[in-house]
Amino acid sequence: MSPASALLKAYLDSSPHTLLISQTTDSALPSRKHLICRLKSQSQTEVMMMPEKTLLPQEEYQMDLDLLDLLKKIISFKTVAPPGSNYREIVDWLVPVFQEMGFASRRLVMPQELFASRCQDSRLEGDRFNLKADLDVGADKTLVIYAHLDVVPAEGAWDTDPFQAVQKEGRIYGRGVSDCKGSIAALIAALRSLLKTGRPRYNLSVLLTTDEEVGGYSGLCYLTDLGEVKGDMMLCMDGFCDDVVIGSNGIITWEATVHGRSAHSGSSFLGINAVERSIPVMQALMSLKKEVQSRRSAVPSSSALEAMGMKSLKPMLNITMINGGVKENIVPDRCTLRGDRRVIPEESMEEVMQELESVLKPLEAQLDLKFYPGYPPMSVNPDHPWVSEVREAVQRGMGFYPRLSGAQGSLDQAYATEKTGIPTCVFGVGRQLESNIHGLNENVRVSDLMGFARFLIELLQA
Ligand SMILES: [Zn+2]
């Protein structure tokens, strides 16, 4: 980085009230007369910044570089899932934003009949508007960039309005600032900046979709099955900026119903107690859990989990729900256990279901077992050139060479990666241990937001 770029970076990183991005090239620097600074006498390298109000009046900048304005606007759409609201409104706003940058933008709306058959979730309602924006610059390769438009609900006692991006002490607070609307704002700001002076090195295909937060089908999975996920490599911005994620666990939800026969509890020997019969089922599941959870993937775990001593992805078997019985003095005729199985990339979804079945079927209890396979596991070759390309762009844009890791959770990205075979990196703006994603006062560091925009420029510029 040149001294002038370093100066600009120091200024941007230290100015929590003026949120702008700039390419880290000298030509993109604001004119020097505005960069008022003085050097500390004891060190020529430390820069003291003037108070914000005397620096770089906002009107000196072109507003289209204003990341905060973009983020405020995007956060203001209450695209909460469930139920999945305001998708039409946010996509209607985004279509011209991309068109003005020369993209061909399309609304990909899931037909109601398909929504009714594929997304049987009574919590969901309304239309499913997804956005696809393509820019053909005549390059050999196409990069697919993906993020989801929905956010989890924002109940509870927030310190600020969750649907207004509020800036305080170097952070921005709001539902979705980290997961993952901050990355969408940074993408638009980065593209505007980049397209002003140059062109991207790849054709771009931007996918902004619905219902990720409910594990839904209507977004990226639907576009995948439509054949709309087409390219040579993919950046999923639904991640965090601690690591570049190249793997994730798959998920299978299971349900085991133990049947019995009801009777008066005073003569319980006349019935079959389904709750008591479920005890050996749970014991069998617990011994399988022990075996399953002793396995390890070759995919390293996130830096946050590594710091807790967990080196690589781990499969999980959980019993998370139990329902049975109607009254204390009635022998219950039914007990239902539910849970999930997290599947490491080395396991197959099919084998995992067979394994569970083989453990439960021999038991005496009369049992119905159902599986609901969700997203598959994902594992991208860490030596793929795309992975290095992303890491190097992070190094240039954000100043560190990121670790590679996997996610214990499950991603809709994995569905697209499995079906299309496109090599994928997952990288976003939030931080695992401090952004409070899905919680109260979700936040993002201003410096990470700007760093992410710089990373995108480094990744995309020709
Ligand atoms: Zn997300």
What does this structure look like?
By secondary structure, the protein is an alpha+beta fold. It has 2 domains: 3-248 and 377-460, 3-Layer(aba) Sandwich (Aminopeptidase), CATH 3.40.630; 250-373, Alpha-Beta Plaits (2-Layer Sandwich), CATH 3.30.70. The chain has 12 helices and 18 strands. The chain has helices spanning 3-14, 67-76, 87-99, 112-118, 181-197, 220-226, 274-292, 303-306, 349-360, 385-398, 412-420, 446-460; strands at 37-39, 47-49, 104-109, 129-135, 142-148, 166-168, 171-173, 203-209, 233-236, 243-248, 250-259, 316-324, 334-343, 366-373, 378-379, 403-407, 424-426, 443-445. The chain has a 6-stranded mixed beta sheet with strand order 3-4-8-5-9-17, covered by helices on one side. Strands 12-13-11-14 form a 4-stranded antiparallel beta sheet, covered by helices on one side. A 3-stranded antiparallel beta sheet has the order 6-7-18. A hairpin with a 2-residue loop joins strand 6 and strand 7 (171-173). Helix 2 crosses helix 5 (181-197), helix 6 (220-226) runs parallel beside helix 11 and helix 10 (385-398) crosses helix 12. It is elongated and about 85 Å long. It starts with a helix and ends with a helix. The model is unreliable at 1-65 (pLDDT under 50). It binds zinc ion. Zinc ion (ZN) is lined by residues 148, 179-180, 212, 238.
